[in-house]
Amino acid sequence: MTADPRIEAITDRIRERSAPTRDAYVARITAKGAEGPKRSTLSCGNLAHGFAACGPVDKERLSGGQTPNLGIVTAYNDMLSAHQPFERFPELIREAAREMGATAQVASGVPAMCDGVTQGQGGMELSLFSRDVIAMAAAVGLSHDMFDAAVYLGVCDKIVPGLTIAALTFGHLPAIFVPAGPMTSGLANDEKARIRQLYAEGKVGRDELLEAESQSYHGPGTCTFYGTANSNQMLMEIMGLHTPGSSFVNPNTPLRDALTREATKRALAITALGNEYTPAGLVVDERAVVNGVVGLHATGGSTNHTMHLVAMAAAAGIKLTWQDISDLSDITPLLARVYPNGLADVNHFQAAGGMGFLIRELFDCGLLHEDVRTAWGQGLGAYAVEARLADDGQSVTRVPATKESGDPKVLTTPDQPFSSNGGLRMLNGNMGKAVIKVSAVKPERRLVEAPAKIFHDQNDLKAAFDSGELNQDFVAVVRFQGPQANGMPELHKLTPLLGVLLDRGHKVALVTDGRMSGASGKVPAAIHVTPEAKAGGAIARIREGDMIRLDGENGTLEILVDAAEFDSREPAQPDLTDNEYGLGRELFGAFRAAVGTADNGASVF
């Protein structure tokens, strides 16, 4: 099916803009792919080191150089619920590889931190930078050049983007991403939000809050709201880097294990040693990137991907801009209502038809490129399916996606969308550029014009709330939260506080050079403001009481101050030394000094 002309036009402009860097990238990975892995040409001492710990059969296969060797890059740790299930995966993968007459080795472990644990804490200032650390850690493992393909075990916020950057840096290698799946449903999301807000108001205590949080996050698997982690899984599937239907199957189930074995066998089938060589760098092209952005909008996905997708695309030589993302939002209907854009969680989304239903519906209205390469070996139309456990209890079978949504309140069709657009928009104005997610914000709250209240630390805003200083209309300007200043932590901790003030009838908005998250909710928030305050951006010259106008409908962010007077102001220069030490922050000074702007992916590469 031919894509909508508007989709084609945006894809063409990305392709034209990217041609020099993309052509150079493809030439590099093509040349590297033609060389093959160095395993067969390593010195005996090198190769002996590479398989010293293997059993006799694996040693024989690796020494021969004629059977594929699969590299496993894993983000396993047993503190993160989403990554704990990966403990079992390497052995499943090795067993499946041996069944194929091949071998598999863990090439690298990469760090995996949880934004849920570090939210509002000093450790959150390492979060965004961890994406680039993950890419580098994966590169260290793959640099041994012992592998014919790789599988990537990762789920959460910065982990999948970091692994994707690594997979594309080693774009001559075939790659399949293997998810662990979401935890089963716990406490309803609206009830969790209600308890959080009551706690913010001092109406319930810490014991009640902890009980509610524990009922929400209660077992192995991804958190079930539609934040960055689950947006990651959607992206890997719609960009053709998962096997079809694998994103949202719960951990530790027979189907999950069957999907992992199947992914292993597929990765081994698409190496250069066979007849279906499918390098990752050719799977992710301009069309796949556009498909990913459309999927993000259609599902009301994470604001973090306005940075991550830019950085991921750049790793493949593709220049994606915020304007591209915003323009695609304007033509993509919102088809999913998953918390915070609704009351359902990802298990309800999966039960209503999941990714197969979504992909088919987007195809039917011409919003996806079907003629892409995928790790599955067919176009993206092959992903309009539901994965099921076969009768043998060990393998996977697939059926066409359901023709009707199992729950139209959760998953709908383009002719009856929840919104005519995806809800992620770029803001422009005399403050620079920013991003807003309006899909969870009521239309009557999308325009706020109010005086600024200035904060240089989110804890200062909480103190002002607790002391009753914020019972008024205002725009909270939380600045010096950008990547250069302190690593750009998420400020999601502010959502319950500002939500209370909204419910009291005040007009409230947030403007920040920091991040919110995939869980950005009902408060209108202009985030990722760039240039950031630390770089001397306009946000650093705002003063207490300046009128600010945030218009989420029309995409503007303005400081309503005489231009000449505003330009004459000196930018604020607070003492940021507290952000430079403790919890490892002192090790990331080079990152803060080298990091790029938010609209360019906030990357150190």
TrEMBL record:
InterPro entries: 6-phosphgluc_deHydtase, Dihydro-acid_dehy_C, DiOHA_6PGluconate_deHydtase_CS, ILV_EDD_C, ILV_EDD_N, IlvD/EDD_N. Residues 68-381 form the Dihydroxy-acid/6-phosphogluconate dehydratase N-terminal domain. The keyword Iron-sulfur applies. Keywords: 4Fe-4S, Carbohydrate metabolism, Gluconate utilization, Iron, Iron-sulfur, Lyase, Metal-binding. Its EC number is 4.2.1.12. Binds 1 [4Fe-4S] cluster. Its cofactor is [4Fe-4S] cluster. The keyword Chloroplast does not apply. Coiled coil: none annotated. It catalyses: 6-phospho-D-gluconate = 2-dehydro-3-deoxy-6-phospho-D-gluconate + H2O. GO terms for cellular component: cytosol. Residues 398-424 are annotated as: Disordered. Residues 409-602 form the Dihydroxy-acid/6-phosphogluconate dehydratase C-terminal domain. [4Fe-4S] cluster binds at residues 156, 223. GO terms for molecular function: 4 iron, 4 sulfur cluster binding; metal ion binding; phosphogluconate dehydratase activity. GO terms for biological process: D-gluconate metabolic process; Entner-Doudoroff pathway through 6-phosphogluconate. It holds the Pfam family ILVD_EDD_N. Pathway: Carbohydrate metabolism; Entner-Doudoroff pathway. NCBIfam families: edd. Catalyzes the dehydration of 6-phospho-D-gluconate to 2-dehydro-3-deoxy-6-phospho-D-gluconate. Belongs to the IlvD/Edd family. This is Phosphogluconate dehydratase. It comes from Aurantimonas marianensis.
